[in-house]
Amino acid sequence: MPGCNTRRRMNEKWKKEKQYMRKKKHKQAFWRSKMGRKDASTIKLPVDQYRKQIGKQDYKKTKPILRATKLKAEARKTAIGIKLALYLQQYWPSYWLSMLAFISDCQQMLTLIWNQTKIS
């Protein structure tokens, strides 16, 4: 089968990549342990540490603090809604007045043209 050779080559390639990553991880762990860390076996990826830290942030806060942050977020949302409502309240009538003026101008122009065509 022609596919077997390619599969075998791919498997060998993947094995080499895994071995390379293991060596690289070992070197990083060894280097980090020399940088004043107590135990090199507890080293995790920075992303994992970051996620763990984010997860712990909520546990550290007490209920009143969590409630206050929730209220702040809601206040921001309502402030945006109030601004939008005021904006619409101010500019919507002016938009309709300008449209009304435009339509009346068009109507006058059309009646003028219509009257001129009737005369001639």
TrEMBL record:
Keywords associated with the record: Endoplasmic reticulum, Membrane, Transmembrane, Transmembrane helix
Source organism of this protein record: Equus caballus
Name the record gives this protein: Triple QxxK/R motif-containing protein
The keyword Transmembrane belongs to this UniProt entry's keyword annotation: yes
Primary gene name: TRIQK
InterPro entries according to UniProt: TRIQK
Family: Belongs to the TRIQK family.
Subcellular location per the Swiss-Prot or TrEMBL entry: Endoplasmic reticulum membrane
Pfam families, sorted: TRIQK
Gene Ontology CC annotations of this record: endoplasmic reticulum membrane
Membrane topology: Single-pass membrane protein
UniProt superkingdom: Eukaryota
